[in-house]
Design goal:
The chain is mostly helical. The protein is built from seven helices and no strands. It has one domain (6-130): Four Helix Bundle (Hemerythrin (Met), subunit A), CATH 1.20.120. The structure holds zinc ion (ZN).
Length: 131
């Protein structure tokens, strides 16, 4: 269970939805600019269906701007999946409720601040299992 009120969760869900629309528009604009309208059409379809395939559709595209945007779209799609599965706002590592303040600053967060910091400090998996 997360710690969010219905209103808070609705606000975050709406933010995520709007952000996704903006990102997909951005990706489309960059593709159009670089003469890759063929891909832009696919992004449109992916955006409509909410399909995570956007990553594979664009794997040939090398523009740094797009790679960053597609990475964020992936995070957003994952957050939407957690929302519909009722697991949004719950840390994927320890199962604790993620603070609303953290979600407000970073709505696609999938870990609580403790787990995120631990993950950033201990990159090596071996250190992980020794805990
Ligand atoms: Zn955690």
């Amino acid at each position: 269970m997360n710690d969010l009120t219905k209103e808070q969760q609705e606000y975050l869900a709406e933010w995520i939805r709007a952000r996704k629309v903006r990102l997909l528009e951005e990706i489309r604009a960059v593709l159009a600019r670089s003469g890759k309208e063929r891909y832009a059409d696919l992004v449109g379809e992916v955006g409509d269906t909410g399909d995570e395939a956007v990553g594979s559709v664009l794997r040939d595209v090398t523009e740094a701007e797009i790679i960053r945007d597609v990475g964020e779209v992936r995070d957003i799609v994952a957050a939407e999946q957690r929302l519909s599965a009722g697991r949004y706002g719950v840390c994927t590592d320890c199962g604790a409720a993620i603070d609303y303040k953290r979600l407000e600053a970073y709505p696609t967060a999938k870990r609580c601040i403790t787990c995120q910091q631990r993950r950033e400090k201990t990159r090596a998996p071996s250190q992980y299992t020794k805990r």
